[in-house]
Each structure stands twice: as C-alpha cells, then as structure tokens.
Amino acid sequence: MTSEPVPASELVVSLRPLLGAEAAAEAPGCGAEPDDLEQAVWLRLLERLEAGGPPPDPPDWLRRAVRAEARRTRRRARRETALTAEPADTGHHGPEHLVLTAARRRALRDAVRRLPGRCPRLIEALLAPGDPTYREIAGELGISQGSVGPERSRCLGCLRRLLTPEVAAR
C-alpha cells in the first residue's frame, strides 16, 4: 500500500515547530541566529520539493538538514576573519598612516553613497561602530531579518563593482 504524498503546505505547517526547536538548539553552537538557520533549511526543503518531492521521512530529514546548516555556518565562520585593523598595520600611526586611512574611509563612504536603492542605508548600518546584529539592522531599516543577508550580498557586489575602477587606478 503506497501512501499519498503530503501537500507542501501541510508539510510546512507540520514541520514548523520542529524546525524552530532544532534551529534554536543548534544556533548557539554555530554562532548563528536561529532564524537564519530556519531560513536556510526552508530554502533547502523548497529546493528538495521542486527537485523531486518531499523527503521520505520529513522530521528526520529536517533534523539532518539543520545540523548540516549549522556545520556549514561553523566552517564559514572559521574561514572568515574579522579585519579589526588595516591589513598591513604595523602599529605605527604616524601622520601619513592617518591621512591614508582617512582617505580610504572617505573613498569607501563616497562609494557607499553612490549605491542604488536601500544599499547605502544597509551598508552604513553594517559599518556602524556598535557592530549591530541582523535583527537590529532589520528593525532599523524596516525589513525582514531574513532578507538582510541576501540584500547585504547584493549590495556588497554593487560596492565591489563601484570600487574596482578606483582600486585599479591606484
């Protein structure tokens, strides 16, 4: 006897509490927000549904997907390093260094102001000295927390394209 596939909407409704609990449990260990893990897993489920239908055991698949996303986030965090100072900073902050640093910051701020749409506000929020969370940035800009990351990627791509000619000219 074959079982009838569960409609996607029912699957989402039935998995929502489990996903929330699993994401909340895994998030502290990988340094991610639970909502970010949830969004990534929902995306993977949507891709799975479009590619070939629901997984045979959705709760088990969901638990494995959350853990896989948490591992991916931990690996990404290990590869990324925060630049808290200029890369070639020797600790000497003479007048020349201060002038060059100020010029680089001015060039960056000028390029950020030339970005399209809400990118200038988003990048300014990301560059804020208090190092705000995605939740704080989303609240400040009036957008959903889940859209901050994709919007950030798009804006950084635009910024990269704007700065490439300026960097190449030097």
Describe this structure in words.
This protein is an all-alpha fold. It has helices at residues 8-30, 34-52, 58-79, 95-113, 119-126, 134-141, 148-169. The longest helix has 23 residues, at 8-30. It is elongated and about 70 Å long.
Q: Would you tell me the structural class of the helices and strands? A: mainly alpha
Helix coverage percent of residues?
A: over 70%
Mean pLDDT: 84
The shape is elongated
Radius of gyration (CA) equals 21 Å
How many extended strands? Answer: 0
Low-pLDDT segments, ≥5 res: none
Number of helical regions: 7
Q: Describe the biggest sheet?
A: none
Beta strand %? under 5%
Terminus-to-terminus distance: 71 Å
N-to-C SSE series? HHHHHHH
Could you give the topology of this structure?
Blueprint: H1 8-30, H2 34-52, H3 58-79, H4 95-113, H5 119-126, H6 134-141, H7 148-169
Helix pairs in contact: 1-2, 1-3, 2-3, 5-7
Keywords:
170 residues, mainly alpha, elongated
Quick recap of the structure?
By secondary structure, this protein is an all-alpha fold.
